[in-house]
Amino acid sequence: MKDKAPQSGNMFVYILGAIFLFGILIVIMRGSFQEGSGIDGEKNVLLVGQVQRYGAELQRGVTYILQSGFSESDIRFASTNAASTYGTITDGPTRQVFDPSGGGVEWQNPPSDLQTTATPWSFSAATVITGVGTTCASSTCADLAAFLSRVPKSFCIQVNRSNNTTNPSGNPPVDPDGFTWNTPFTGTYTYSNYLNTTGNYLDGKMEGCVERSSVYYYYRVLLAR
User: Fold this and answer.
1) 32, part of any domain
2) Among residues 170, 167, 178, 172, which one has the least CA distance to residue 212?
């Protein structure tokens, strides 16, 4: 009869241990099936962070040029690595985003394992991003932005999550009208269309990711007008 108390205590410890282990198993299983978890999810988080940091550098580079006394039409994106349509970096180096004497930004190609089809960064000022700066159907409202095309859907979703932007039904917001992202900016602001989405999920967002015709685009506003 005297042995019953220790045995009961040991049994209680075993039960608590089993409950603890079962709880850990549930957490592991939930993590394995949760959207965006696992190795691919961690990779997306790292890629999003890398792209966002570079987008912030580009924005700071534009700001430095403006603070140096240049106008918004003087800004240039020429580089030995960029398309020739952006001009030459020797054309007024102090107004060049990628020159040390100008914006001081180092040119970076997009991460090699990011895009579904490798395309370089695009710098355009032919689209009005709704709710950013002044919104109107005119070149005076066109925003200067950097774009990355053909990013994966999972990357697009993670970008929006990081900015507290709703991904409706778990999908990136859709732009129904189309927008211009690949007209090289060489000093002229034009108007082609709005970047807006069904549900207005990206209104006022300086950064985001959007679907257009089953293709996903990342954008970062460099100068809101």
Assistant:
1) no
2) 178
Between 13-17, 53-57, 125-129, 168-172, the lowest mean confidence (pLDDT) is in 13-17
| Overall domain count for the chain | 1
Residue 175 belongs to domain spanning: 39-223
Domain assignment of residue 28, yes or no: no
Q: Is residue 33 part of a domain?
A: no
Give me the pLDDT at residue 35, please.
45
The sign of the dihedral angle between the CA atoms of 160, 164, 168, 173 is negative
pLDDT in tens, 100-140: 999 999 999 999 889 988 999 999 999 999 999 999 999 99
